[in-house]
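Batch manifest, entry 17 of 40.
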Amino acid sequence: MIWASLLAGCALAAAQPALAEHTVTPQSREDALTDTIIITAPRQIALPADAAAIAARVAGGDIFGNGALSGQLSYRGLAGERVLGRVNGQRFASGGPNAMDPPLHYAPSILVDRIDIARGVAPVAEGPSLGGAINAELVQAQFTDGDALTPQMRMASQYRSVDDSYAVGGLAALANQRWRFGLIASREQGEDYRFARGRAVGTSFERSLYGVHAGFYTALGELFVEYRRSETDPSGNPPFALDTVYFNTDFVQGGFRGEVADNVGLTLRIGHVAVRHLMDNQTLRQPAATPPQARATFAEADPTPLRFRNADAKLYGADIDFVVRPARHIELAGTASLVRGQRRDVADNLYRIPPANLRLSATWANDRLALGAELFAAADQNRVSHTNSEARGDRYTTVGLFARLTLNDALAIEGGVENLLDERYAAHLAGRSRVGASDVPIGERLPGPGRGGWLRLTARF
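Output type: structure tokens
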């Protein structure tokens, strides 16, 4: 049994954080402790392929790094099944072992409109979940105020040098005040990423997604339906024995959402998810397995889920996020997180608890141009699990630069430099490499990406 004996969080805002990618917008007593991460301009980072890395920027967040498309959100020391994940409000089970395809695997960052995180024990409507609930909403057509069907379009494309990756995605839609119809699509591909003085072999990735959706607005609310197809091609999972060869997954859902009486909301949904999966240790793994060691596994679903053995334990800590505008064109923002996990049955710490960390950003902006810098610092993690022979984690600090130029109401260019000082570091929750032909020794934590530039173009009509 795990007791969340003290997990405090607070948010400070001196002004509406229009320039922040992370905002806290309580609208009622029920959502007063709900964080909403809005990944709109200006974005301080190159969008990672894994949307879990975006969610991990919330106060109290971190990530288990298991591959470019397989990260799992750690929130206030809890992860896995204890942090419920959804995409467009739809719940589903992982199709691969070790959660090779966690929920946000199916939410390409280039298509994410926002990520909602319910802090603490999730509300029944968003759970059940002990450690919070996360929902990634992809871009969709929006109802308008008029009778005529009007076109809507959103496009984004990005290049990132540290892994020679690209991502492109967008929405094409028609909508009026009663009907909405939309098409979405994305394509991403990246090579093995570079770190200071080396390359992490076996971290390349490929993924495509496309889908359609529609909605009809009635007097009480909206009837909606959607279909998506996600195709993940060979993608590395260095901490696992096998890499992904493919995940071919179909999502279907439909339902109703609206207000059926004063202050009475109702959401009904029905859906189906089909996952087809192949993994092996030959397609990407270097050196490739010898014939006696070669393995390949197909899966339609995971009939033998992981077994958990709960330990009597407690978690406590605090986190904070803030946005302050000391001057007209200056914005300062940041998060700080501290969590401790202790077992009650034996004198030991819980396994894989993130270290204390701090994120600070400073932005100067006018109507067209924004310039800024971001610092992230993680402390040593010496409170490790001796029962699990967990190694200690080292402190590190990274610095990034970012800029945004608004060309007009529809177009903007963003860019920046990540890990400006080319710091060599390994996050405490990073997985350990099993790839032999890599500059990362077998059994060592995967290092963070090295210095690299990124460029992104966004358009909205």
